[in-house]
Amino acid sequence: MKKYGASVILVVILLAAWEIGARIVNYPFILPTPTGILTKLWDLRMDLLFKHLPATLSIVVIGLLISVVLGVLLAVWMNWSPLIERAFYPLIIASQMIPTIAIAPVFVLWFGYSIWSKVIVTVLITFFPITVSTFDGLRSTNKELKELMLTMGATKKDIFFKLNIPSALPHFYSGLKVAVTFSIIGAAIGEWLGAQAGLGYFSRRMMTQFDAAGVFAPIVILSALGILFFIIVVGFEKRSLKWRKTE
Amino acid sequence: MNKSVLSFQNVSFTYKNGDQAILKSLNLDVKEGEFVSIVGASGSGKSTLFRLITGLEQQSEGDIMINGQSYEKRLGKVGYMPQQDLLLPWRTILDNAALPLELHNVSKASAHRQVSQLLEEFGLKGYENRFPSDLSGGMKQRVSFLRTVLSGSNVLLLDEPFSALDAITRLSMQEWLLEQWQKRKHTILFITHDVNEALFLSDRIFIFSDKPVSHLEEIQVPLSRPRTQKDLNQQRVLDVKDYLIEQLRSKVNT
């Protein structure tokens, strides 16, 4: 508790300032108060939690799964062959130079309002941190450890499973932590541009109705979702990297 | 007792992208159960010798025989203990020591049993489920040595294993190593910078001369076993020590 005390106090101060400011301005359809947002959240809870949250959640989960599988396979492949690395690495970097928000409408054009247009946006921005960090992790394998294992008669397969993978694991988790936070953003952007359900979609619909509190309410849930995912990943990380001293 | 376990026959070696030969038709012979130290200035090719024996490098010419046999691929035929402990940080002490057994497809249960039987002797009892980061330098080296012993080979190559330890720990590790060696009847090749260490441990000392190495000067240590550190103060040992230091110094100067 001591660790988070300062930031909790800061958040309370900011929220209080917001509440007071918004009340003074007194245009609730443009600048809602935090309490107004909470009230809205409560009013819309059934719709938000049982209709729009599942839509967004499935985009995030499917997108992340694809990214992890794709990213890890690509990283392993690049680590295995320098030719593949030279061929793919520049493309992977280039893919991140494309403004996601600009290319997302193309996916809507191709895949319509189905879940896949949103999944692709999510994959596009989450596979990058996973691929790059896993690849760096695989490459960070200690050469002396590899030679030592060779002197024990280790095969290529032994080296990969007993040395490369454990060496890459901490890096993989770093990438995954970045990816889960990005995945929420990706899903929300995708939904903004074309969807029939989802928290991003709902937020946009409320904007057209000049309901500022309604815009914020799903954003609160999106943020909470991001934090929750992050905590889950940290939990997995701690479990599988027990050997690492945290302090 | 006089069976040859390691012999070089006219071995030459040059690194692939190196212009200077490291070894040039070198002959050497190590007998079963011997403790041989190799001393020489840094960069004189001592580690290269180990890389050749383990099979990490292939000789350009000549033959390297291990236990009287010459192999196409030598990897996995001798036990090698590196200068740094090189334990896998994500493995417990038990799993680290069991690694060579695992690589030889020994079942996990049987590997763990074999390690557990040795933990006490290696002063690691109670640490089997700890990680390397919990251990002191001396303990890590004992795990590393245990792992080398479990490679199952009768020839062990130890590359400056105690150089990173403090002086007191180093002395007790040397005594401990001798005890283990006498009990297990391994043949040990031991690289060191430390002349005292070489004298205390070895039957014979090889001096690495200038590159390319074509001949190893060999010194018989004038001490019987068992020995104590005090024996190093005998006059004939001191004479040998002076000679060794002089040899090494002249190698550095040239």
UniProtKB/TrEMBL annotation, chain A:
Predominant subcellular localization, coarse grouping: membrane
Pfam families reported for this sequence: BPD_transp_1 (PF00528)
Bilayer topology annotation: Multi-pass membrane protein
Alphabetical list of PROSITE patterns matching this protein: ABC_TM1
Keywords of this entry: Cell membrane, Membrane, Transmembrane, Transmembrane helix, Transport
UniProt xrefs under Gene3D superfamilies: MetI-like
InterPro entries listed in its UniProt record: MetI-like (IPR000515), MetI-like_sf (IPR035906)
Location of this chain's protein in the cell: Cell membrane
Domain ABC transmembrane type-1 per the UniProt entry, residue ranges: 53-233
Transmembrane segments: 55-76, 88-113, 119-138, 172-195, 215-236
GO cellular component: plasma membrane
GO biological-process terms attached to the record: transmembrane transport
PANTHER family for the chain: ABC TRANSPORTER PERMEASE PROTEIN HI_0355-RELATED (PTHR30151:SF20), ALKANE SULFONATE ABC TRANSPORTER-RELATED, MEMBRANE SUBUNIT (PTHR30151)
Protein family (similarity comment): Belongs to the binding-protein-dependent transport system permease family.
Name of the featured protein: Hydroxymethylpyrimidine transport system permease protein
Taxonomic source organism: Priestia aryabhattai (Bacillus aryabhattai)
TrEMBL record, chain B:
Domain ABC transporter span(s) in chain numbering: 6-235
Record-linked InterPro entries: AAA+_ATPase, ABC_transporter-like_ATP-bd, ABC_transporter-like_CS, ABC_transporter_ATP-bind, P-loop_NTPase
Catalytic reaction(s) noted: a quaternary ammonium(out) + ATP + H2O = a quaternary ammonium(in) + ADP + phosphate + H(+)
Any one Gene Ontology molecular-function term assigned to this protein's record: ABC-type quaternary ammonium compound transporting activity
Listed EC numbers: 7.6.2.9
Complexes and interactors: The complex is composed of two ATP-binding proteins (OpuCA), two transmembrane proteins (OpuCB and OpuCD) and a solute-binding protein (OpuCC).
Protein name: Carnitine transport ATP-binding protein OpuCA
